[in-house]
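Bug #77: duplicate submission created two jobs. Keeping one. Sequence:
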Amino acid sequence: MVVSKFGKPSQYLNRELSWLEFNQRVLDEALDPANPLLERLKFFCIVSSNLDEFFEVRVAGLKQQIESDVVARSLDGLTATETFRAVTLRVRRMVEDQYAAWREDIRPALAKNGLRILELAELSAADRDWLKEYYRTQVRPVLTPLAIDPAHPFPQLLNKSLNLIIQLELQKGTEASKHLAVVQIPAILPRVIQLPHENGRRDYFFLGQLIGHHLADLFPGTRILGWWIFRVTRNSELYIDEEETANLLKAVENELRNRRKGDAVRLEIEDSCPAPIRNALLRTLDLTEDDLYRLNGPLNPTRLMLLYHGDHSPELRDPPFVAPVAPTLRDAPDIFAAIRERDILLHHPYDSFESVVHFLEAASADPDVLAIKQTLYRTGGDTRIIGALERAVKNGKQVTAVVELRARFDEANNIQWSRRLEESGVHVVYGLVDYKIHAKCCLVVRREGLDIRRYVHLATGNYNPSTARLYTDLGLLTCQPEFGEDATNFFNLLTGICQFQGMQRLLVAPFELHQRILALIEREAENARRGLPARIVAKVNSLAEEEIIQALYRASQAGVKIDLIVRGICCLRPGVKRMSENITVRSVVDRFLEHPRILCFENNGSPEVFLSSADWLPRNMFRRIELAFPIMDPVLRDRIVREILALPLADTAKAHFLESDGSYRRAKPAKGEAPRRSQLEFIRMATNEVVHASAALPGGKLPDGTFPEVRLRERPL
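Kept job's structure:
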């Protein structure tokens, strides 16, 4: 077989447009009437939150490329200008669909179910009186009216802050002059005000509308001609030259302050705002019409999450799910004894993350534990994890925390908790020059008799109990000596001065992970050429690394059947004849955010399975410290293959298939079959209900593709 070269732009999809298609799948969940109403509202808010970050980072990067002297093409052949134009068109279409859904569907449905967002004319006299008093006592004292004139230049508005632009008229004698002013809507106050009703009715009013109604109070002696809410999104990437920075903590703190004042990249404004006002804002912010988004609905919809939160309307939500403790730990009085018995696989959120917290708390209190070393990327500031490390120090243990200060949008949290840990006596290390530390690892060193045993937790997700209830991830608890030795060497690499020497079990980026993945893919291709069993199943969040895509193309040409589950960005074009016809790509968007990275290689009938913190992106392969680790226990490996990978591959309710043109089509059940929803089946498994797991994967024993019945109590532990 002649293997094609893969240098043509037409062989790849655009990264930014691929991400936008992911956000469209999130929007589709908001549009789906089969979802409970408040869950639809949640997805509606997530769409906006995702777009905020997209503009803050990706669009900001495109604009910087356009303004630079370097002209280059992306993998798919577009220049930065061409990508920006395509992105702008796609975002406009998405935002139009999003706001039409709000006006025509979601808001009316909320009102029908007793969750009303009221306009001024809909307020009762009692509501008006209450809001007037609320404004007088809670809002007015924190407002600052800002005039715009030669003596008062346009204010430096904070990133993503909500503001009012006001046009007013000032009468001096017989002459009237028009002026502009700005009032920032205070972020310290709830953006959506819940009106007090003793009968349990839930009515809300927007803070911006309340301030707008009382503008005459802020500008006495003037005539308010009009006011409009607007919002500015700014470049929020951090720019730190670590080699020139003696104190990374201070550098990140300083850059965080700069982030809030970065260059503007987007202006959102109410669509009723007159053109002269819009144009004045664009000129002031150094933006163009391409950067303007006129919205007929609430600016910053993420504030609507207030309606989602709270103990109300259970009938409008997904059924509650409280993750049970993993079966292997459920009746284990000693977590260390349980790990000594065999490796333990944790599948969050279906297995409770409390087991990981308990592992740390037990280590901090155990008199036989000598040392704890842990990476921290996004802790969420959980007091139990931080507290366990602090108590370990008080109990005389050596404790080291490798904290990544540059975890995007969590920098401030990480700085705060780093300082607290340092004050408690924890050795806090801020990582390596030029590399973000994204690996997830915890090492516990324990004296057992005359011996020293090392216990290791490795994971695909962060040490964050909050997100562990919302994200799907995998973790491994083991005390195998090879893992313990590797974890020791890994932390020495992060905290000391040494050269990477290789590991027995762990694969570490940027030193070897990329090449090992390429070699594993090539091995499957070679097995296929020789007529041996060959298969690849990979689950990642993003796929945009060129050499990995090319290796997958070559494997497909060799006859390897490849199933990819890629939640977000995918630059690979599947299903192209003589290039990727053996590759399928699907994405699952559901109640929980799909987050684990799982790599499964058939290996001539002896499947190898790796879990990883790394996506298949250039940054993860070359600019981050990442870990991938093999699953050595055959029972756990079989569980991953036949259950954790199999169910998403069988999903016909929440899965979407990527087409070769970059579009996605929703999966559908075969005629006469009920839809299968993988996350729901995982929940049922966790709560002892009967489910089915696919055997049509490497290691599966049913060639006809049927699904053997599995019960939790029969599930391999």
